[in-house]
Amino acid sequence: MTKVLRDERVTLSHGSGGKAMRDLISSVFTESFQPESKEDQARLMHDALLQPGARLAFTTDSYVVTPIEFPGGDIGKIAVCGTVNDLAVGGAKPLWLSAAFIIEEGTEIALLRRIVASMVKEADKTGVKIVTGDTKVVGRGSADKVFITTSGVGIIPADRDLRADAIQPGDVAIVNGVLGDHGATILAARGDMMLSSDLQSDCAALGHLMEATCTAVPVRACRDATRGGIASALNEMAEAAGCAIEIDEEALPLRPEVKGTCEILGLDPLYLANEGTLVLFVAAEHAEAALAAMRSVDTGRGATVIGRAKAGRPMVTMRTAFGGTRIVDMLVGEQLPRIC
Amino acid sequence: MCLGIPGQIVAITDESRMMAMADVSGVRREVSYAPVLTGSPADLIGKFALIHVGFAMAIIDEDEAAKTLEALRGLGEAQETLEAMAEGAKALEAQ
Amino acid sequence: MRYVQEFRDPKAAKALLAAIEKVTNQIGATKEKPVHIMEICGGHTHAIFRYGLDRLTPEGIEFIHGPGCPVCVLPMSRVDECVEIAEQPNVIFTTFGDAMRVPGTRKSLLQAKADGADIRMVYSPLDALELARRNPDREVVFFGLGFETTTPSTALSIQQAAREGLTNFSVFCNHITVPEPIKALLDDPYMMLDGFVGPGHVSMVIGVHPYDFIPRDYGKPIVVAGFEPLDLLQSVLMVLEQIRDGRAEVENQYARIVPEHGNPVSIAAMNDVYERRPSFEWRGLGEIDASGLRIREGYKAFDAEEKFGIGYATGNRVVQEPEGCECGAVMTGRIKPTACPMFGTGCTPEMPLGALMVSSEGACAAYWQYGGRRAAEAAE
User: Fold this and answer.
1) Average pLDDT over residues A61-67
2) What pLDDT does C192 receive?
3) Chain B, 22-81: which have a CB under 8 Å from a chain C CB?
4) Does the distance separating the beta carbons of C96 and B1 come in below 8 Å?
5) Of A137-141, A223-227, A283-287, A331-335, which range is least confident?
6) B45 to chain C, minimum CA–CA distance in Å?
7) How many angstroms separate the CA of residue C10 from the nearest CA in chain B?
């Protein structure tokens, strides 16, 4: 039977390996995640693995975000979505996640519960199981409330092989929706620029979207446009594909609030982070079918063509509204707000 | 230098410190209206101001904006006519 | 976005470009013998590259990128002084994000922050003031950087601090002025300038008359311009028409924002709080008479130079610019960024040698970001 956890905040004793730790883990984590195995490991089997040619996909990512809760999500939701998306954009069907927590002494237990609840909700929605995990507690100041590392395992069907070096000149670049919502939301939520808006993070798991799209058309390659924004994702793809990518400024889906945030702080929305946005390439003749398949899924309602691959040196360029062209380079460091 | 962006004054937030809420495409930020106050602060509500580093630095002169746009529109239309004429000439040559 | 989108209309841009081409031909300007137009303001430099206007306008027009980027003209010694203040115990050093990456001789503010200094980026000096209210036991210093557009914001903030009796707020004043360096450039016998695109937001504060000397004493046209692409193109056209017609006048393309006499409240606040320094050092341009501001005696309680004994002309701070860096020559229009031997090799946005590669308004960074890389690769 689980003992009720009476503490309001995490203390170092919750990381000591004793009863306090056991109570924290059982009351906050395992009660919610409900892992099948009582051992310190997950033991896994799936029918899809028996198909000839199927491959395992395995990925890992660490999550830190300030503030830890923000409009449209929290660190738990990002930790599930981010790793699910890393699997999904490679064509894998996400199945299992691990979750490891580094918790700062003094963190409210209620906050932990909210984070865990949002992980469970997101995992259920996207059809993955959180099957194993770990917690560590560190002294005050050694972490910013909670850091989460999730690893994910999925299965890539035999006939699917998404890779950026498969992109051909003439292929069409499609995004699933608006750009920069997450970055602009976090900027406002941090509060140091004292901006407010009704923006919400786009944080979402894209497993269903990718499944629907890959089932409908052959997708050449896909990336999620997280840190560094759509510009960085496209640059990585151009580099790997060995060809140029051209996007159209007027085709970029941007909310007015994201544009407003960028105008005020002198930022470029192409570099703002997303947490539920992907860009994929398909042959031009499959573009319409891809768009239709994407738009049939909630997270793909805003799917739209933003550009194309072209023969040429591997770089990303943008056609401006009046026919000018400019290079869209990788970001050097963090984008800093500016006044000039 | 000097990033400045038009924003609409939507509310007076603190009259003693001359602060108002400005809205730029749905993004709100408190700004000082000290530079643009000429009458009563309430008169500023609804006006568009040029916002720079948290200050409303100038009220946008709607008549002047309209004049500039009018001139630009005239140019645009003239250009369209020219292009249409060029197209027409090309079509005639082709015949 | 009202008052923004209308001024980005491609159709009107096309018409303006056609008109610009026509007038350029009437003047007889060619790639070999171009008209040289200086856009004074770094914001205009940024817009020219962002919208690709340099490649849309005829080859007979050469844009010379002027000194109107406060980060670019900031000598290294001033960055060193910022770091010195920021590293004092109990100081919260606040700055616009623009200054964070500018290299000092020892380190940039970004590096000083990593080393433990409490340095915070703010959007407004009002936010620094708020930090001072919330942290009464800390000394909050604001890095006052920028031209006449920004100067009123720090002047008004200092006045507000005085009204509230705050004793833990001060400004490290590095404000500079626009007309003086233009005069210095026009006095330079090597400069070949045929006209100016004037800084719209500076003029919104000071009005258009401070430029009267440009046509009167030097016979050159100047058009005060807005920052949207159509504003810029229209202003370039107006400069060209003046050149063609043999006129030299101060014209105002940006009348929706720029009143003839500027903003009286801002001017009064600046005059109340600040006075001119006898001279001030500009990176690449050297000392220019009466081109910098300092805080008046009456407000010295808010002067970081007074509080910390650090500041302009307090020490012997002659700092050599890094070897090979040609920021000065680029800034005065003597060479293009790509002609600097360090461009793209010893100086990149990742490892900037000079400030022009740091600021998003710097000519070198603009060349790099919006096409310079191509130039650098072509030169390989």
Assistant:
1) 96
2) 83
3) 24-25, 29, 31-32, 34-37, 48, 50, 52-55, 57-58, 60-62, 64-65, 67-69, 71-73, 75-76, 78-80
4) no
5) A331-335
6) 16
7) 9
Mean per-residue pLDDT over chain A, rounded: 94
**Cβ within 8 Å of A, B 57-76:** none
The reported pTM is: 0.92
B85 touching C, CB under 8 A? no
Domains of chain B by residue range: 5-60, 62-95
- Apex CA A104: angle with CA A103 and CA A110, to 5°? 70
* pLDDT tens digit sequence for A85-140: 999 999 999 999 999 999 999 999 999 999 999 999 999 999 999 999 999 999 99
Predicted-complex ipTM score: 0.91
Residues 6 or more apart in contact with residue A140 via CB below 8 angstroms? A104, A105, A106
Residue pair B51/B29 in contact by the 8 Å Cβ criterion: yes
3-state secondary structure (DSSP) of residue C343: strand
- Measured between CB atoms, which of C1, C14, C123 is closest to A260? C1
Tell me the chain A residues in contact with residue B51 when contact means C-beta distances shorter than 8 Å: 264
B and C: number of Cβ contacts within 8 A: 137
> With bands split at pLDDT 50, 70 and 90, how would you rate the model's confidence at C334?
confident
- What are the structural domain ranges in chain A? 12-156, 164-327
Does residue A337 sit at the B interface (CB-CB below 8 Å)?
Answer: no
Evaluate if residue C376 carries a pLDDT over 50.
no
Structure tokens that stand for A263 in this block: 């105008």
**Strand pairing report for A316-319 and A244-248:** parallel
Mean pLDDT computed over C126-155 = 97
Q: What mean pLDDT is predicted for residues C347-376?
A: 75
Chain C residues near residue B13 by CB distance under 8 angstroms: none
Q: How confident is the model at residue B1 (pLDDT cuts 50, 70, 90)?
A: very low
Neighboring chain C residues of B72 at a CB cutoff of 8 Å = 7, 9, 12, 15-16, 230, 234
Give the mean model confidence (pLDDT) for residues A191-199.
94
Cβ separation of C150 and B52 shorter than 8 Å? yes
Say which amino acid occupies C23.
Answer: V
Q: Hey, are the CB atoms on A263 and C1 less than 8 Å from each other?
A: yes
For residue A222, name the pLDDT band (cuts at 50, 70, 90): very high
Q: Which CATH superfamily hosts domain A12-156?
A: PurM-like, N-terminal domain (3.30.1330.10)
Q: Chain B within 8 Å of C149 (Cβ-Cβ)?
A: yes
Judged by a CB distance cut-off of 8 A, whether residue C361 touches chain B is: yes
Report, as an integer, the average pLDDT of C323-332.
81
Contact present, A258 and A274 (Cβ < 8 Å): no
pLDDT exceeds cutoff 60 at C333: yes
Architecture of the domain delimited by A164-327: Alpha-Beta Complex (3.90)
CB pairs below 8 Å between A and C: how many? 91
Instruction: Give domain limits for chain C.
Output: 1-309, 327-372
Inter-chain CB proximity B3 and A261 less than 8 Å: no
Among residues A60, A278, B82, which one has the least CA distance to residue C18?
B82
Q: What separation in angstroms does the CA of A97 have from each of A181, A277, B49, C152? A: 26, 20, 51, 55
| Nearest beta carbon to residue A263 from set B1, B5, B28 | B5
Specify the CATH number for B5-60; select among 2.30.30.140, 3.90.800.10, 3.40.1350.10, 3.90.420.10.
Answer: 2.30.30.140
Long-range pairs of A12-18 with CB within 8 A, sequence gap ≥ 24: A12/A105, A12/A137, A12/A139, A14/A103, A14/A135, A14/A137, A15/A103, A15/A135, A15/A136, A15/A137, A15/A138
Residue A112 Rama label (left phi>0; alpha psi -120 to 50; beta): alpha
Q: Which CATH class is domain C1-309?
A: alpha beta
